[in-house]
Each structure stands twice: as C-alpha cells, then as structure tokens.
Fold these 3 entries.
Entry 1:
Amino acid sequence: MQTKLKMNWSLSCVAVVALCTLLNIQPAKADEGMWLTMFLQRLNMTDMKKMGLKLSAEELYSINKSSLKDAIGGLTPAGNFQNHFCTSEVISQKGLLLTNHHCAYDAIQSHSTVKNNILRDGFWAKSTSEELPCKDINVSFLVRMEDVTARVLAAVKDAKDEGERAKLAAAEIAKITAEATKGTHYNAYVKDFYKGNDYYLFVVESFKDVRLVGNPAEAIGKFGGDTDNWMWPRHTGDFSFFRVYMGKDGKPAEYSPDNVPYVPKHSLPISLKGVKPNDFTMVMGYPGRTDRYRAAAGIQLDMEETNPARIKLRTKRLALMKEGMDKSDAVRIKYASKYASLSNYWKYFIGQNQGLKRLKTLDYKRNLEAQFQAWADKGNNAAYKTVLADLNKGYADLKEVNLFNTYRGECIFGAEIVQQAQQLYMVRQMLAKPEGAAMKGQVLGGIKESLTDYFKDYNAGIDRKTLAAMLAYYYKDVPKAQHPDIFAKISNEFDNDFNAYAEYVFDNSFLASKGSFLEFLDAYSDETLTKDPAYMLAESFARKTDEIRPKIVAANAAIDKGMRTYLAGLKEMNPKTTAYPDANSTLRLTYGKVIAYKGKDAVNYDYKTNIEGLMEKEDPANEEFIVPTKLSEVYKNKDFGMYAENGTVPVAFITDNDITGGNSGSPVINGNGELVGTAFDGNWEAMTGDLVFDKALKRCINVDIRYTLFIVEKVGGATNLIQEMKIVR
Ligand code: ARG
C-alpha cells in the first residue's frame, strides 16, 4: 500500500520496557503491531520464536553486523530521505531492488511515450547499460536508531503553547541530527511517536542514483485495476525492479554513467518453497501513517463530512481525467499516474466509510473513552479528567472550518493551474522581503526547471473542465462566509456560469501553457502577475486562507495537545492498549502468519490464488482484465518451470501482518529470513485498519515470489535477473 506520526508518557519507551520486564508483563502478541526494530529483543522475540522465526534479534536489527534491516530500502522522492512513499528490498549483491509495480508506476510512466510505451508493454533491461535513470527517486537504508526522548522533552518543558513547543523541539532536533551526522555522509531525522510523547533519531544512508531495471506490462502489473484494488482474492502481478548505484568510492552519488551497482550489507535470499497456512511471516518496511488512537470525535468528523466530500470531489475529477484519457493515447500516458494515485485513495475512503459503519467503529471508540473517563475520574490527574472534553472541543472548532480546509486541498487545488498560481503567490510574498528578493534568480530558475516535467504530464482541456466543476462544488457546499471574494466577480461578470469563467481564465492566463509561462518567468513583472486571471483566483483563495488559518491552527493545536495527554493517560490506564506507536514513515517490523479469513456470513476466503483464477478473470473487452498474449501462451503450454506448485503457479497469498500505505513493496519474509513474497495491498473488509486493527478481518495481500519470478523469466525473458539472485529451492 502506497502512502500518502507520535508518545508522552512520563516515562520514555526504554524505561517503560524495563518496567514491563520488571513487573513481568506479558510480551506483545503477533498480528497487530508495527514494531520498532530496536526493541524486538525485549518485546517480540519470545513470541516470534514460538511462531516459527529461526533468526536472532541481532540478525534482524544490528548496528555493528549486517542484518535484515540492511536489505530494506525506503523509497523517497529525490532530495528527501525521510518521507517514504513505498518500500523496496535488496535481492542481489549488485543492488537489485524489488518493489511494487504501483510504486514504480510514476517512473515507468515518465519513461513511456506513444512510440515506446513501456507502461503498456513492459520493460526488461537485458544488461545494466539498458537500465533507465529515475531522477525523481532516492532510496535510503537505515544505519541506526536511538531514543532521544529525554533530550527533546527537556528542551520543550517550558513551552507556553503548541507553537512554541514545536519551535523548541525543532531547534533541539536540528542539534541532534547535526551531531549524529557530523563527519559522515549520512543523513538523519528525528520523528515524534505517540503524538509527541517520545522521540527517536534515525541515521540513514540515502542513495540518489536509482534506475529502472524491469517492469511487467500494465495488464499484469495492474491486473484487476480499480475493480480489484483493495480487494481479495487478487491476481495482480504488482512488482517491478530498480537498481541502486553508488560512486566508485562506495558512497552515494548523483547519477553518473560512471557509478557502479551498490554492494549491499545484506541482500535477501529467495525461497521457492512457498507458504502454507500458519507459516510464520514477517514484513519489514516503512508504514506511512496510522491513527489507531484517534478520538471518536475525529472519526465522526471524517465519517460524516471529510470522507463524503473527498469521495464526491474525486469522483468528478477522475471522471474528467478518464474522459480525456479515453480520447487520446498521449493523454492516457500523461494522466496514467495521476489517475491511479487519485483513484487509489478515492476507493480507500469509500471502503473506510462503509467499514466504519459496518464495524461500528464509533461505538467501539466511545466505549473506550467512557472507560477512560471513569478511570480518570477516580484518579487525581486533572489533565486526564478534562482531556476528552478538550478533544471534543478541538474537533467542534475544527468542524467550523473543516469544509473550507478539505475543499481547499481536494477541490480548489484539484485544478493544477491553481496550484501553479498559488506557488507564484508565495514567490511574490517572498520577493517582497529583502532576504527573499536576494534569491529571486534562484527561485524563478527552480520553477522554470520544474515546468518541463509539469507540462509533460499536463492537459489544459482536462484542467479547465476540472476548474469549472470544482468551483461549482465549492460555491454550493462551503459556507458562504468562507467564500473568497473571487466568487463576487464570478457572480457579477459571469452570472455564476463556472464554465464560462474557467474558459476566460484559461484563454487569458499565461499559466495555461508552457511558452507563455516561461516568457513570464524570463521577464518577471509584478504587474503582469497581478493582472493574470489564474493568479487573481489563487490570490483570492490565499487571502481567505490567511483569514481562516488561525482557526485551523488553533483547533489542530488543541487536538494535538489533547491527543498527547490522552495517550499518556491510556498508557497509564492499560499499557497493552498502547503497546506500539502509530505508523510515521519509520522502519517497522510486523509479524504474523499465513491465514485465510471469513469475509462475511457464508463467505470464506482461501489464503492463496493461482494462475487458473487469473485466467478465469480474463475479459478482453474490459481493459482492467486483459491477459497479455504472451502470458496466455505460457499458460496454455504449462511452461511453469521451477515456479510450479501442484501443476499451477501461485499468484498471491494473504497474511495477518499489520501494514499500511508506505509498506507497499515490502518483503514478506519466512522464518529463515528468506523472501517469499511482496506486500502490496490490504483487503476491503478491513479498510478501517488504519484506525482500528480488526484481528479477524485485517489481511495483508502479497504477490507470491514465484509468480514474480515466473513472469520475469517466462514472460519477460529476463533470465539475467534471475541469475543474479540467490535462490533457495
Ligand atoms: N491499493 C494499493 C495501495 O495502496 C495500490 C494499488 C494501485 N492500483 C490501483 N488500481 N490504483 O498500495
């Protein structure tokens, strides 16, 4: 699952663990939990061993020796080493990386043209010289982590409010990361856990030269499309390969033809033995974000207002993209990646809202809160007694500006021209200050450079229709007091005809086409800018945002502070309910087993799918279910090679590992430390999983490594890749 954070107990996590050991509290149990790799020995090893793990804690995470963690590469946007959009794993001593097809999707699309459409047809580099540089992707490996809670909490202890607390924390964190990386080529970041109760430092080595090595045709890599997305049973070959390169000195380097394949500290051997029910499995990777401790009021706001809005707005935006994509192959390529990422979370929000109702999540949360209140009332911590009321007040305040906030992101910025214009609004603010003005050339140069990529994947026709549709929704749905004054102009001059207004904007704005945009940047003039209709629209929204922002910030600050107190209280009430911190894009390990599930009354799902099931889904008339000719041929000839099991090829399997967006591409590893699959999705029955873990329903969907290698060899003919892997039969 692809992406899109925090602990204040009075005791640091280390201290809590020590306390647990002292009091002989039961160590954690499997399935639920995204565990920090540094605490596996104390929290999880006993349980993992019982379930079938043969490795030691030191073989999973070690600072001094090579360990499993060294094979886990977090995929980040270029220049960023801490916000992982996906996970990958090293599977050869030459830096070969395996991840999901949907994680490589953007890179594959950017290398596709109408003439050489590798997104549609697939791509297999037959030698390293054919690999394709992906300048937008970096991959980072964790060197070590450390508890820095005491330092950060000491720095913030006298903060007057949330704003000051954030500033003091940031200053201390800057010192910590500088010390941690001094004299090295490493990068470091500190993240907060349990909503700011705990802080951990992560030191990483981030590689900048990443190249695309191979991907199956989209009909395999995205088989089942949006229909099957977030669902089980699944037949998607959701995998692709990259390779990490390093400088000749063995250190990370910018792309250069002289770079050499990365020699990892550890690469995962691959097992062709497959899995059966109850087999131990663990997944190591970078889960992006969960909100398992979220208050009922927060869930209610999402359920009743935010999610329905997101769904409605995205439905329309997707329809407009699709309309454009269906008309032209060139537009189809341009919008493929934008469409896929928008639709992924569109369907997620639909599933989450259905699940919240079906599973009565609100009742569960309210019940927990009632228990907490009763417990707090008996104690003598004043903050605990009022914290739920504080949280409810925070959410009530947020609700007043929630539609504005949601529509700003999902609706107004849904039109890309407004995002571009907003960027120029910020530049103009910056240029008004002397220190900003000094950077004029650099900033405008940066924008100029970004326009090549931006316009490569842009279609003004789609964007114009989107702008018209989004303004109409905003006008109707957001309270009138939160309308920026541009709506008065649209009413006076266009009689609220949003199509006519959007047409006027696109006909007259320099932002609508690359040539005029570049011309503007070359001769930047405040006068031209402030008269531009797209700019005027963005500026009007920006002014309204400036007016409303303090309310949003205050409500969120109250919620953040409330959650920090609530979590500290929950921990005191019952340490088990807060055994692991929410996902925050840091390296975690989740362990569990291969296991089927009961979807609903009289519906029992098996734990694996195979290639026969894929052929049954084939529908040449439906683009989501096309089976490429080559795959049909191999299937007819039963040419399954060493990937067969009982006369078929297993395609996917499910486990109860606890994953979320950002874990996409993570390795599924058996008890011997061998790769058996690649995690890529969650299931429809448990779409509330980021809010509450439902043991009976939540499953992790994985591509069977044998299907991956079967496609690589038999369909892609890339035996060169198979040869560099270490395969255990
Ligand atoms: N649900 C998957 C995830 O979040 C992404 C699948 C991408 N496929 C798609 N049809 N959009 O990781």
Entry 2:
Amino acid sequence: MGTGMTTKDHPEPTVFIIFGGGGDLTWRKLVPALFSLHLEKSLPEQVAILAVDAAELTDAALRHRLHDGAKQFGRAQGWKAADWAAFAEDIHYCHGDFNNPKTYAALAKRLEEIDRDWGKRAEHIFYLATPPAFFGVIPDRLGEAGLARERERARIVIEKPIGRDLESARALNATLGGNFHETQIFRIDHYLGKETVRNILAFRFANPLFEPIWNRRYVDHVAITVAEEVGVEHRGSYYEHAGALRDMVQNHLLQLLCLVAMEPPVSFQPDEIRNRKVDVQHAIRPIRHEEVHETTVRGQYGAGWIRGQRVRAYREEVGVSHDSITPTFAAIKLFVDNWRWQGVPFYLRTGKRLGRHVSEISIRFRAVPHQAFPPEATFNWQPARLVICIQPDEGIVLKFQAKQPGPKIRLRPVDMRFSYQESFKAPSPDAYETLLWDVMARDTTLFMRVDQVEAAWSLLAPVLEVWAASSPNDFPNYASGSWGPETAEGLIARDGRTWTLPTLLHEPPIDEKM
Ligand code: BG6
C-alpha cells in the first residue's frame, strides 16, 4: 500500500501495543482496521495486539467489546464467527497505569515472553490511542524502559492533536524526538490515508495533461470544503479545547492544500514527497495579526435541522459549556507565494452540522479571455471547474461548457465524471487500514514529519492568538443544516467569487433535472 522504496511486502512478526486499548479509537477504528487486514491476509503470520489501559477488564470482556466494534464500524462484510475467533485469540488485555514505570517493566517482560514463544524477535508498534494528556509521559516511560532504543524494531504512532499551538507542539515533538528517532515516529493525519486523497498525486503526476494548466495562468482560485453533518457527538470535552481550526484546518485541510499545490516530486521516496509538501507550507503567505478579521471566519452551530431531524445547538451538547466560544466552523483565505500560485487564492472552509456531509476540492479555471459567443448563447455559461470529490462520493468531475442540442448555439455546463465505484470493482480500504499497513512496512510517506506539524502551527498562530484575544459576540451564528455563517459567504464574495454547492457524482443528466 505504501508508496516508498522502503515498503516491505511481507511485514515481520509484529506486536501492536495500544495504549488506550479500552478506549474509543481502538474500538471504532484501530481494531476494525486490523481485522480487515487480517481478513485480507495482510497481517504478518505472527501478530499480537496488547491493549494497555487502566480500566479493570478481562481478555474476554475486551474481545467482546472489540467484536461489537468490528461489526458496527468494520468495512469487511460477510465474515464468520471463526474469522473473528482466529483474529481475537491474539488480542490480550494488559492492565496498567500509563504514568507508572511498573506498567512498562511488565510490558517489557511480556514482549520478551512473546519473542520466546515465537522463537523470533518481534517488531513493536506502540500506538498512542489515549487522551492527549498522556502523549508526553508514554514516550518518556518507553524510553526509560529501553523499549524505544532499537530503531529497526520499535515504532511509535501518535494521533493528533500534536500540541495545541506551536509551543506545545514543539515540546511534544522534543519529547518524542528525545526517545525515538524521527524515522520511528508516525504522526497520523488520517486524511492522508484516504484513497481519494492519495489519488491526488496519481492524478497530477501520472497524467501530463493537467500539469501545464495547473498554475496561476489558468487557475482562478481553489476552494477546499470539508463539511460534516455530525455535531461533536460524544467528544464535547475534547472539542471544547480544540475547535475547528485545530481539529481540522491545522492538519487535514492544510494537507489537502499541500497536495494540490506541491511541485512534482522527483521520486516517491517518503522524504521527497514530504519535502515538496513542506515547501508549500513554507510558501504560504504568513497571516498578519491585523488581517485575521478580514481573511478568516469562525462560527458555531445553533439548533437546526439535519435530514429532517431537529438537532441541538453546540452549547447544549454534552461536555460543552453553556456560553462556549469554541468555533465549530472555520474558513480562511490563503495565498501561496511562489511562481506557480502567486495571486491565486485558496479558500478553505470546514464545519460541523453543515448542510451535507461532503469533502471536495474545487479548482476553478479562469474565464475565457474574450467571449466571442453572443450573450444569448452564454446565458448559462460558467467557468470550467475540476472537482476532486473526496467523500462520501469518491471521484473526479470536470465541469466544462458544451453546446446544448438544438438549432441555436446555446452553451451550458456539463460534467465529465470519474467514479471509483464505477471504475473499480474493489472497494477502497479504510484510511486506517492503509496507515496501519504502512506503519508495519515502515513507510513514512503518509505521515506528518516534525517540520510539517510545526509549519502548520506557525502559520495558524496569529489566527489562534487574535481569536483568543477577541471573544465572538454573535455565537451561535449559524443554524445546524445551513452552510455556515453568512460572513463565510462574505469572505469569498468580497473577491467576486462564491462557494459552490457540493458536486454530486451521481447527479441525473441535465434533461432529467429540468
Ligand atoms: C477528525 C476530527 O480528525 O476528523 C473529527 O477530530 C472529525 O472532529 C473527523 O469528525 C472527520 O473525519 P472523516 O474521515 O469522517 O472526514
């Protein structure tokens, strides 16, 4: 699955040690993904999962809960009880306090026993699926216990938030780096594991067709939308301290921007790809404090309707304060100051409880330099757009002008569509399947390197500071089920542009719509 030269086709015997093994991420994402890999025979023959947590749990109770997670959230269908039984016998619960060195001594002993049983030295993948409060202590304790020492053998996987600002990210990276070498550290941004996101590189760099127009001469602007219908669900207490900018823009949306804007890589070596991406981050024009109000918009959802259901306001969610000023919506306008993109705005927006669950990148091309068609022909004319549909529809749509059938010349926009569902029979793997496989294969391409994380925080620092210093007095400022605050329309409308409605891959042909 990996893209780098370091990819190994047959992972070595491996032990996954999941800190927070009794928690939500393990239940919803990690174990369902590992189970899919097991069903596809992509796990090593010798594999074990040690779930470390502080709760009082037995192996049987843990396996029962994880079975339920695999059924509810797993991609794989039609598996049998025997499939689960064969997988689950390698899952074990280890009770332990993450702060206590004894937990790590016991772990080291357990890992030695596994090596003895297998007659091999297994590789160790330490996965931090814990609340962020433990992100600092676990790497230190692993280091003290000697479990981080062997570069080829030990890896650590960490989810965001990697800090909550530049300073805390630097401190956390220093702790990680003090115990593990950068090649052992896998910082997950799960968007990078999505097939449609990985396909951006294939689309751009396997087709010479698009490269000549992929620049300021032809592109008018780029709009990236990551819209969710869900609210904060059960994560209110985490989200209160994060908000949309930290939760989504600092990582997922900036990564999408980098993939669209980066220069062609010379090879698919992990660091070559990551260098090209970080070049983009360094080229993004710094946001001056005094510009923040003009170039960003924040919002918070009020009550409203989603798919015919009444839903409550953010301030009424569990774990959220009644006068919370945490933004659940963020929009930002950025420029990439280099030869390719000078003057082309990149508009980014993301929010919870928006009108539709959709993530897409819309690349709007410039208008024709001279409109030769008579006005009546161009009544419905729209500039061409290329839309990369990331989810839930997966594909790419090119929107361009065609002559409407009939005696007169009348133009109207039509679509050329590529749909994953129609083109490929095999369903796409879940992002976590791809990423876990890459961790086993030691391929860091799709993971965040230390400098990428810090560049993203340093870009957003002025926004976080200005927002923290001036409380919004209009929250909640958008209804659930809408497209966010009106000011987000203003952000793009001031430049004479608009956000477009989501592109539906399976839209009916024009005549059926009329
Ligand atoms: C996570 C955020 O990183 O991404 C969540 O913490 C968000 O708040 C989620 O809901 C969205 O991911 P996806 O894959 O559902 O688009």
Entry 3:
Amino acid sequence: MDKFIIGGGRPLTGEVTISGAKNAAVAILPATILAGGKCVIENLPDISDVAASVRILHEMGAAVRMLDRTTLEIDTTRVDTTVVPDHLCRQMRASYYFLGSLLGRFGEGTVSMPGGCDLGPRPIDQHLKAFTSLGATDSVEYGMVSVKGEPLVGAHIFFDTVSVGATVNAMLASVMAEGMTVLENVAKEPHIVDVANFLNTMGADVRGAGTDVIKIRGVEKMHGGDYSIIPDQIEAGTYMVAAAITGGNVLVKNIIPKHLEPISAKLERAGAFIEEYDEAVRVSRPGPIMSVNVKTMPHPGFPTDMQPLITVLLCLAEGTSIVTEGIFENRFRYVEELHRMGANIQVDGRVAVVEGVGGLQPAPMRASDLRAGAALVVAALAADGTSEIDEIEHIERGYECMVEKLVALGADIRRVSRPAETRAKAF
Ligand code: EPZ
C-alpha cells in the first residue's frame, strides 16, 4: 500500500517522453495468441496492466523473452489452454481480450467475468453479441465467461453502443472466421487502429479501422509479426494538463499530434498555449485558466479518460465550467477527494458544475482508479504545500515511471511505502 508525497506549487519545466499506449498494449498482447508463432512487440509501457497480460500469456504456455526494457518477444506456438487463470484475470479488466483471441484461434475461450470498477457498471453484452453473431455460443456462470464456436462464420454486426472493448474483441474473433465480417457503430480510438495494424502484420485482412465501418476478410492462418505500439494519448494529455495547471513550460515528446487533437483543442480553449512539432508538443500557460464546457464522447470527441484531468484544471479557471461524462455512468467519484482540497464542484449524475477557485489546498487523498488517481497527482502539483495520495497502485496500472518523469520536470514528488495496517499497530 504505497503512497505519493507531493510538494506542490512549482511550475513544471523541461521535457517528458511519452511511453507506449496502455490501451493498445493490453489488446495487442492477447492478440499474439492468434499468431501461433513468434511476435516482437516494441514500445511496451512498463506498467502493471502490461505485466499482468504477460503473466497470463506465460501461464498459458507462451514463451516470453524480454529483448530490452520496452520490447518483448512472445512465441504463442505452445499455448496449451483456452482458460485464463481466474487469479490472473482479476488483476486487470482487459483480460476479456483473451476471449476474442482464444475464440479466434482455438474456437473457444474462458475468462473471469471482468470486474466493474469506479466508473459504474461495465457490461460486456456487446462483446458477447459480436461472438454469438459469428456463430459462437456463450455462457456466464460461476463468475466465468465462456465462448465456444467452430468454425466461426463472418457476419454483419451493428453495435448497439460504441465500445472500444467490443470493437477490439470482434476483430480478434473474426480474423480467421469464414468469409467477410462487417462491423458498424464501432469505436475509432487510435488504439483501435493500432490493434488492426498489428493484426494485419500477422497476416489478417482488416480494413477501415478508425472509420465508422471495419471490414475483416477471414484468412486461413495467421503468423508472427513485429510491431511497435503507438504512444499513449492519455499519458500525453496528463502531462499537458500538469504543465498547464502549474503554469510551467513542458516539451511532451514521442507523441502523434493527430491523436491529441481533441485534447489540445480543449486545453487551448482553457488558456494553454500549445506549439505542435512532428513528434512533440510544447505546452505552457501564459495567462489565466479559462472556463470551458466539456462533454466526453467516443473518439474523435474529447476522451473520457481525460475527464478527471480537465476537471482538475477547470477547478482553477476564471468562471464556471460544465463537465458532462458522455460515456460512463459514474466517473465523478474522485470529486469527493478534490473537495478536500477546496475545489468547488457540484455533481449531479453525469454532469459536474465546476466553479473556479483561487487555489487548491494540499490534502491527504486516496486514488480510486487509474485516471482519477492521475488527476489527484496533478491537483496536488498545483496546490501550495504537501499532499499525500494513497493507493497509488491504481495509478501505476497505466503510468510508467510517473515519479521519475515528474521529478525530471522539477516536481517535488516521492513514493513511500506504507506498511499494511496490522492490529498490533492499530492501538
Ligand atoms: C476502454 O474500456 C478503456 N480500457 C477505458 O480506459 C476507456 O475509458 C474506455 O475504453 C472508453 O474509451 C481499455 O481499453 C483497457 P467501452 P472499455 O466498452 O472497452 C458501455 C483507462 O483508464 N458498454 O468503450 O471497457 C460501457 O458501460 C480505462 O485506461 C456496454 O454497454 O470501454 C460504457 O458506458 C478506463 N456494453 C461504454 O459502453 C458492452 O458490452 C463505453 O465502454 C461494452 C461497453
């Protein structure tokens, strides 16, 4: 149970290099099962969700070799089971991607029912709709989700709701189905395109990823492939907000500017000054933070994963901002922690009314999920004084070397281990 100790009130200056995209990595790693051969995956972020995915692959019989800090060689030739160990599934939500890749290669797969988390219910009905449309049967019992079907036959699938996970899982399951699969009302995030590009590297025929319609022509067999994962747009956005809220000047390197367009546009409206280069953006904030209204939407709308971050920035804006969460039912739980810092936010369901205040006060806080935890770090960096953030394991699921990267930008942040509470120490 570690925590961060943060001495805020210092402008961040310098350079930060963005790591590989978490939400691409946790899909591409399970997808290697489809190869039945050797893949080399580069630019993997060193985060616990990636470690969990690798542990699952290894437990299932894949041969995994680290070629360097961010590059893994994964040989799934000898994957010898179609059941993902329950105790490993619970470590991260994205274990449901193993359903799609196991079904696509072996005609069956079983994983633990993915947990909900602090964002509200996280159903998988659209994933199951994709699998059953391809001819598989599904069963959900004893907390396990199983799908089975062979051969799978291509189908025309129109999703009832835009879902990143279901779009990815439908691609994974259909790459070796018989005939053509057409997916409509799909997610278009950069990591969807990344997964499609990786599948094509392994011999699949996936076209249209990133548009409203994805077409997958089934192939007989897949093979290994080498691939480098795109940079993480949300990690980049996090450091962009940290630069803006502290009134600093930061060069955010190893990014794809197009992936940041919805984030950059909103930050500029809020008073940030953003200079764009080929693979970097420089963020500063010469004047006041301005109030803006935000609604999170599927890509190319403003990303839901940036909602906690932009809300923290708007806590210090001149005026009132309205933040509407268009994707998840309950993604404002972190606001209670911001109230401890003197933020003036009123939440009603999916809408938060943010009244700008003159400053945030340091406070002891607790991270509840990945992006909420990152938002508390950013808030603490802006507050004059020392804050503590507990349960930082949530943050380290998706942010590589956050302490080192922030210290390099001049932040006063350190990680301390807090011994687990024991009765003997309770009194
Ligand atoms: C992915 O979650 C990301 N996780 C999330 O990032 C991200 O917030 C989310 O996409 C939206 O961009 C990974 O990629 C591992 P969805 P996912 O399916 O796939 C509803 C982070 O911080 N829905 O796009 O689970 C769902 O309830 C994490 O990195 C159904 O109704 O999200 C939600 O309201 C947090 N039925 C909406 O769709 C389904 O079968 C979008 O969810 C699936 C989803």
